[in-house]
C-alpha cells in the first residue's frame, strides 16, 4: 500500500463535510491546476457508491474515478474498493489544532508508485488548502 498524509487546521466536522460533500469535492479534487473535477456524486454509506469526473481543463482528457464504500464511520474512517479490486482506507484523527488525514491505497500497475504517491499527495494538499481557506 502507498500512504499519503497531511494535517488540516480545521475542526473534524468541517474536514468531514469538505471531504464528503460533492459541492466541496469539485473544488479540491485535482492534482494540478490544469485539471479539475466538474462533477461529483457521493452516496456516503457502507455499500454506497461515489463518482468524480476528473478532466483536463483544456477538454482533451477525462475519466471517472469511482468506488464502493466498504466502511463509513463518520468523522473517523472511510474505506472503499475500486472496480479493479484495489482498496483505499482513509483515517481522520483529531489532533491539537486540527485533523490528521492518513490515506492508504493499493497502487495500480500502469504508473510508477512514486508518481501515484505524488499525485494522491497533491490532491490531499489541495484538500488542505481548500479547507483552510474557507
Compact description:
This protein is of the alpha+beta class and 134 residues long. It has three helices and seven strands. The chain has a single domain (2-133), classed as START domain (Alpha-D-Glucose-1,6-Bisphosphate, Chain A, domain 4), CATH 3.30.530.
Counted beta strands: 7
* Beta-strand proportion: 35-45%
- The oligomeric state is single chain
CATH architecture: 2-Layer Sandwich
Structural class: alpha+beta
The level of helicity is: 25-40%
Number of alpha- plus pi-helical segments: 3
Parts with pLDDT < 50 across at least 5 consecutive residues:
none
InterPro entries: ASHA1/2-like_C, START-like_dom_sf
Protein name: Polyketide cyclase
Pfam family, one: AHSA1
Domain Activator of Hsp90 ATPase homologue 1/2-like C-terminal: 9-132
Description:
There is one protein chain. This protein is α+β, with helices and mostly antiparallel strands and 134 residues long. It has one domain: START domain (Alpha-D-Glucose-1,6-Bisphosphate, Chain A, domain 4, 2-Layer Sandwich). The chain contains three helices and seven strands; from the N terminus they run βααββββββα. Strands 1-7-6-5-4-3-2 form a seven-stranded antiparallel beta sheet. Strand 6 and strand 7 (98-105) form a beta hairpin. The longest helix has 21 residues, at 113-133.
List the topology elements.
Layout (H helix, E strand, L loop, with lengths): L1 E7 L3 H9 L1 H7 L6 E8 L6 E8 L5 E12 L3 E5 L5 E9 L2 E8 L7 H21 L1
Antiparallel strand pairs: 1-7, 2-3, 3-4, 4-5, 5-6, 6-7
Helix pairs in contact: 1-2
